[in-house]
Amino acid sequence: MPFEFKKLDIEDVQLIIPKVFKDERGFFLEGYKKSDFIKNGIDIDFNQDNHSRSTKGVLRGLHYQAAPKGQAKLVRCIKGEIFDVAVDIRKNSPTFGKWVGEKLSEENKHMLFIPDCFAHGFVVLSDVAELLYKASNEYSKEHDRGILWNDPDIGIDWGIDFEPILSEKDKIQPRLKEIED
User: Fold this and answer.
1) Distance CA 176, CA 171 (A)
2) Contact, 18 vs 107, CB < 8 A?
3) For residues 25 and 80, what is the distance between their CA atoms, to the nearest angstrom?
4) Model confidence pTM above 0.90
5) Considering 63, 64, 110, 120, which one is annotated as catalytic?
6) What is the pLDDT of residues 19-33, one digit of tens each?
7) How far apart (Å, rounded) are the C-alpha atoms in residues 9 and 80?
8) What's the CA gap between 147 and 110, in Å, rounded?
9) Catalytic residue status for 64
């Protein structure tokens, strides 16, 4: 199997470690293989691919899309390094308001699967970072939502010792307790 799937502390969020084939020419890996993902409980039709580039200190998030346009995501950092975070926003979940985070980098080639009904964010740790990620639904401005990145009720430890660079939108997102169902 070209992947190792690791369950994290929140059910349904998985760290995916691809098998990397290296030699003097470079490397090859499979970034996604539907049959292997289905065997590991990830049966998602991805409908949109995104590519983002950010500089050191940029923090994007916490973002999600409301139903019926929620987005599951498969995130991979192809240049640099990020700390990637998923927050459970399923109100009936025993892990509601809990978060998990993983370092994703061009070196480790790990991926994070984030199910629908989770908020997602990341902070750039390297000079520059580029991400590729698949989304299960297309972007919908009407359903675009967010949660404040430093909501004290969630208490994310971003692992940074600097003030992050935020978009104006991300500076004024509501707290988790203020979001709608």
Assistant:
1) 14
2) no
3) 21
4) yes
5) 63
6) 999 999 999 999 999
7) 25
8) 25
9) no
